[in-house]
Structures are given as structure tokens and as C-alpha cells.
Amino acid sequence: MNIKALQEKIKRFNEKTRPKYKLYSQTEKEILTKTIKLNEEVGELCNDILSVLKLQRRSKLAKFDKRNFYEEFADVIITTFQLGSVAGVDIERAINDKLKKIEKRYHLEKDRIES
Ligand SMILES: [Mg+2]
Fold it and tell me: Cα dihedral sign for 73, 78, 79, 85?
């Protein structure tokens, strides 16, 4: 199959599988936007992790600044908080609930920071 035929086939497939709903509300659009932004920030963090591990090509390693690595960590955390806010997620509760599950799973001492 050539590329043009493949594109036509995918186009027909896409028409049949296209979602029948639309995103109408501002909240839904913000959730989608923040989700995409979070993926972008995770990609940037992955890029810097490759640099920290010296797994990038030389030209990228030459431009790498370790301060940017910290900034990308912050970007992921900030964007996660923004997404949580838009999606109505109580992040403190979500983290505490998850820590409880992890502690239970691994039989860890209860040494979480309590507020
Ligand atoms: Mg970033």
C-alpha cells in the first residue's frame, strides 16, 4: 500500500471512529489544555533527564544547563496543580490518600507529614 492510499484509508477510518461528542464547556476546554500542557512539560523533563544521564547527543549536551532541569521539575508540578485545580481535584487529599495506599501495600510505618 502506498502512502496516499494509506492516508485515504486512515481518513475513512477516522470518519467512522470520530467521537460523536463535542467539548462545550470552558472547564472541559481548560482540562484538555492543561492535560496537553502537562504532557509537554513531562516531555521537557524527560529531555533534561536524558541530558543529566548524558544520553543526549553532544550538541544538546553542550547547551544543557542543570538549572533548567529544576525548572522543568517545577513546571511539571505547577502544571499538575493547575490541572488539579481546573478539574476540581483536592491535591492534598489525593496525595494523602495515595500515600495511605502505598503505606498499606508496602507495610510502611506511618510517618507521613500530618498537618
Ligand atoms: Mg517547561
Answer: positive
Ligand 1 center to 38 CA (angstroms) = 9
Q: How many residues does the chain have?
A: 115
Which residue, among 92, 90, 76, has the nearest Cα to 35 in the 3D structure? 76
Q: What is the mean pLDDT of the chain?
A: 92
Cβ pair 102, 108 in contact under 8 A: yes
Q: Find the 18 Cα to ligand 1 centroid distance in Å.
A: 31
pLDDT digits (tens, 9 = 90+) for 41-62: 999 999 999 999 999 999 999 9
Amino acid 2 reads N
Using CA atoms, how far apart are residues 103 and 110, in angstroms rounded to an integer?
A: 7
> Grid coordinates representing 77?
508540578
